[in-house]
TrEMBL record:
Keywords (A to Z) from UniProt: Cell cycle, Cell division, Cell shape, Cell wall biogenesis/degradation, Cytoplasm, FAD, Flavoprotein, NADP, Oxidoreductase, Peptidoglycan synthesis
Family: Belongs to the MurB family.
Superkingdom field: Bacteria
Function: Cell wall formation.
Pathway(s) the chain acts in: Cell wall biogenesis; peptidoglycan biosynthesis
Organism taxonomic ancestry: Bacteria, Bacillati, Bacillota, Bacilli, Bacillales
SUPFAM superfamilies recorded: FAD-binding/transporter-associated domain-like (SSF56176), Uridine diphospho-N-Acetylenolpyruvylglucosamine reductase, MurB, C-terminal domain (SSF56194)
Name the record gives this protein: UDP-N-acetylenolpyruvoylglucosamine reductase
Pfam families (UniProt xref): FAD_binding_4, MurB_C
Start and end residues of each FAD-binding PCMH-type domain: 33-197
InterPro entries on file: FAD-bd_PCMH (IPR016166), FAD-bd_PCMH-like_sf (IPR036318), FAD-bd_PCMH_sub1 (IPR016167), FAD-bd_PCMH_sub2 (IPR016169), MurB (IPR003170), MurB_C (IPR011601), MurB_C_sf (IPR036635), Oxid_FAD_bind_N (IPR006094)
One GO cellular component, as annotated: cytosol
Length: 309
């Protein structure tokens, strides 16, 4: 099936305005990195998601899901097949002590809605720049809280296109991990079980966490957030700082001088620049401290062909 035929088939599943051909993915990642997607599709209904999954599977077309690109590096060669973004699923509602958020909603916005409703439990997420779906995918956490602490259940669509309700324990949560990718699930919406709290106390905690984040993190540059998982018994940022790597730069990608756990795009970096900095940091820390740094950021896509990028 050629690209023209794939496009025509896609228009029978989603509206034309929600299909982009040869779309630069650097427009959709926080790092401002990434080559082109053959097709970038933004469905508006769950049935459309189901239709895209079934179409891709039946025709053996690669289907890649991205959220808002906050914890993602897309290589310079881009992504073949269909890239699907669920950012148009951004509705958040509150029912008693439960907060229901669609997967494309920001987890920051979810925490703000919890505040408005006087519900406590999501304060830790007030500075995490990902989507709700992305937060479940990696069991996002900060300041002592994690998604697994507050998730009640979620509606997912499985790899065969079936709608399934999964309880929190079904996700196999551990540090920065869930089994969502392994199972081939796509999160459509999440239901968080929170507790009644006092608005003033919730707001004070969120304000404190926001200020701590602003003071420590290099928010003035594009980045993917914290690049590395915390190694057992250590802090990644401290290991990188003690290795003398702050300010280390390849092309436009640099280890942040403000927070060593961040790699920032200071001058039109390519994904190759970014990945080479990651690899240099890993090699240096391993040589100096015999500690292996594992990436928290997800790296996907293809390397550029000769003469591209």
């Amino acid at each position: 099936m050629d690209k023209k035929e794939i496009y025509e088939r896609l228009t029978t599943i989603v509206d034309k305005k929600n299909i982009c051909v040869d779309e630069w993915l650097k427009r959709h990642t926080f790092t401002r990195l990434g080559g082109k997607a053959d097709f970038f599709v933004t469905p508006e209904t769950y049935d459309e998601v189901q239709g895209l999954i079934k179409f891709a599977k039946a025709n053996q077309i690669p289907l890649t899901l991205i959220g808002n690109g906050s914890n993602l590096i897309v290589r310079d060669g881009g992504i073949r097949g269909i890239v699907m973004s669920l950012t148009k699923f951004n509705k958040i509602t509150v029912d008693g002590n439960y907060l229901i958020a669609q997967s494309g909603a920001g987890i920051i916005e979810a925490s703000q809605e919890a505040l408005k409703a006087g519900l406590t439990g999501l304060e830790f997420a007030c500075g995490i720049p990902g989507t709700v779906g992305g937060a479940l995918y990696m069991n996002a956490g900060a300041y002592g809280g994690e998604i697994k602490d507050v998730l009640d259940h979620a509606l997912v669509i499985d790899k065969d296109g079936n709608f399934v309700k999964r309880k929190a324990e079904d996700f196999g949560f551990s540090y920065r991990y869930s089994n969502i990718s392994k199972n081939g699930d796509i999160v459509l919406e999440a239901v968080f079980r929170l507790k009644p709290g006092k608005y003033e106390e919730i707001k004070a905690l969120m304000d404190d966490l926001t200020e701590r984040r602003r003071a420590k993190q290099p928010l003035e540059y594009p980045s993917c957030g914290s690049v590395f998982k915390r190694p057992k018994g250590y802090y990644a940022g401290k290991l990188i700082q003690d290795s003398g790597l702050q300010g280390f730069r390849i092309g436009g990608a640099e280890v942040s001088k403000k927070h060593a756990g961040f790699i920032v795009n200071v001058d039109n970096a390519t994904a190759s620049d970014y990945i080479r900095v990651i690899e240099h940091v890993q090699k240096t820390v391993k040589e100096k401290f015999n500690v292996t740094l594992e990436t928290e950021v997800k790296i996907i896509g293809e390397d550029p062909k000769e003469g591209e990028g």
